[in-house]
Specification:
- By secondary structure, this protein is of the alpha/beta class.
- It has one domain: Rossmann fold (3-Layer(aba) Sandwich), CATH 3.40.50.
- It has seven helices and ten strands.
- Strands 4-6-7-8-3-9-10 form a seven-stranded mixed sheet, sandwiched between helices.
- It starts with 11 loop residues before the first strand and ends in a 5-residue tail after the last helix.
């Protein structure tokens, strides 16, 4: 695990089950192994935590719930954003308690790939500080995503990202890693993200948790199934493609 120095004032030290929470452990999302593990054991967060795993293992469910428990909007934006289209979030946020660091920043930002267009509309109609906002809808998906990163990810706070690589090229993913690393160097910014990208998962100094049908376990980048599959595919695509092509 990536350990943080004691003088770091991180917004969230620990995520755990709220004692008074009425948890449904048999339905969704309580029955997901990763959610069950979180509610049972809790999770300590350092400067950066990266969640990886296959579809359906609960990555997005966890980061969404932590973001909401922190006070961030379910469909993305800062701690002040209030917008929505169709509610799809789980009740997990209401089952959680966050242990916050005294004196740490209370600001944060949540970016989730699947609701970015709704966020762009909100930002365009509610420009920051009453100024003129970028025309996100007139940019490519990747350009607009990078503009949000450039203009919002620039100081202390809690930054939560759900599959940010979906909008980015290879070079864009590298740029994202550089930006997140610069934020970590501030000493008062904290990152929680879920990704399918081996590039984004390579964020230096991050704690990596690999989710599967048993819950999660801590891992290193070299040992991730995600990394192994990409290496094998690039070395011989035909070995994978023969299983999916006619």
């Amino acid at each position: 695990m990536a350990r943080h120095p004691f003088d770091r004032r991180l917004p969230v030290r620990r995520v755990e089950r709220a004692p008074e929470a009425a948890v449904d452990e048999t339905g969704w999302p309580g029955a997901l192994p990763a959610v069950s593990q979180l509610l049972c054991d809790g999770l300590d967060l350092g400067p950066a935590t990266v969640l990886v795993g296959d579809n359906g293992t609960g990555k997005s469910t966890l980061v969404e719930a932590v973001a909401m428990a922190y006070g961030l909007n379910a469909e993305g934006g800062s701690t002040h954003a209030r917008h929505g289209t169709r509610a799809s979030e789980s009740p997990l946020a209401g089952w959680l308690r966050l242990e916050r660091e005294a004196g740490a920043s209370r600001w944060g930002y949540f970016l989730r790939a699947e609701t970015m267009h709704g966020l762009y509309t909100y930002l365009e109609t509610n420009p920051a500080h009453g100024g003129r906002e970028a025309r996100f809808h007139e940019m490519s998906h990747g350009e607009s995503f990078l503009e949000v990163l450039r203009s919002r990810f620039d100081g202390s706070g809690f930054y939560v990202l759900d599959e940010p690589e979906s909008a980015l090229s290879f070079s864009g993913c590298l740029g994202l890693v550089g930006l997140l690393h610069d934020l970590m160097e501030l000493g008062s910014a904290q990152i929680l993200l879920a990704t399918h990208s081996p590039v984004v998962a390579a964020l230096p100094g991050a704690q990596i948790l690999e989710l599967d049908d048993a819950g999660w376990h801590e891992s290193t980048w070299d040992d991730l199934a995600l990394v192994d599959h990409h290496r094998r595919f690039l070395a011989g695509p035909e070995r994978y493609l023969r299983h999916v092509l006619g």
